[in-house]
Amino acid sequence: GQNIDQPTEMTATEGAIVQINCTYQTSGFNGLFWYQQHAGEAPTFLSYNVLDGLEEKGRFSSFLSRSKGYSYLLLKELQMKDSASYLCAVRVLQTGANNLFFGTGTRLTVIP
Amino acid sequence: EAEVAQSPRYKITEKSQAVAFWCDPISGHATLYWYRQILGQGPELLVQFQDESVVDDSQLPKDRFSAERLKGVDSTLKIQPAELGDSAMYLCASSLYRGGNTEAFFGQGTRLTVV
To answer: What residues 65-104 of chain A have any CB closer than 8 A to a CB of chain B?
Structure first.
């Protein structure tokens, strides 16, 4: 099975930087995704890493270390609208098809 | 902008009744997923299709759940009979290439309440 861990909740201040960590243990690793999910809404894609290193996209960056089974999502210049759940998802190659498995999500609250 | 369409958005049903959810993926997307998300948890994969074929349904409770994608386009997920523990958000997602080798786009989901 897949084991994906991330903190349940985090709180950060508007304008600050926050780092959300994700660790995973899986076989057949084939990429890691971060999704944002506002309450009652569908998850929306934020970032994708398959090779080690940092991917930057505006205020959001994501890092991956395959050898350590570790990723983080970095959010800069936090805004109130960034209050949401952030889901770490691991893509796993199984029997010729890629499946996408999610962690439990980290609920981020941005305070003024 | 292309979207994954799901209906209904909300469904209340009594336990032991049958319920069905519909999903229309983004046009041309070969891979379709059904996920179940319990409040406060991450999505749990139920079934994955490539075109009209099931490639993974290992987490689908087959005694009560069924899924089909007959023409490789839209899909239906059915629960019969529904149980109280089935109350959750049911999310459909699609990705462009076979094998799910691109990001998945999610629909708005169907929130099911079993009473």
So the answer is: 87, 89, 91, 94-104
Q: Decide: B41 and B27 in contact? Cβ < 8 Å.
A: no
Residue A67 to residues A26, A33, A52, Cα–Cα distance (Å): 12, 17, 9
Chain segment B2-36, per-residue pLDDT in tens: 899 999 999 999 999 999 999 999 999 999 999 99
Biggest CA pair distance of chain A: 48
Preceding peptide of B8 cis, ω within 30°: yes
Give contacts of B104 with chain A, Cβ < 8 Å. 33, 45, 100
* pLDDT (0 to 100) of residue B40: 86
**Does residue B13 sit at the A interface (CB-CB below 8 Å)?**
no
| Residue B54 touches partner A, C-beta closer than 8 Å | no
For chain B, the residue count is 115
DSSP A83: -
Q: Please give the DSSP secondary-structure letter assigned to residue A51.
A: S
Percentage of chain A beyond pLDDT 90 is 80
Cα nearest neighbour of B59 on chain A: A1
Query: Cβ–Cβ contacts within 10 Å for residue B71, how many?
Result: 9
Q: Does the distance separating the beta carbons of A101 and B56 come in below 8 Å?
A: no
Both structure tokens of A16: 């600050």
Query: Across the interface, do A97 and B56 touch by the CB < 8 Å criterion?
Result: yes
Q: How far apart are the first and last CA of chain B?
A: 36
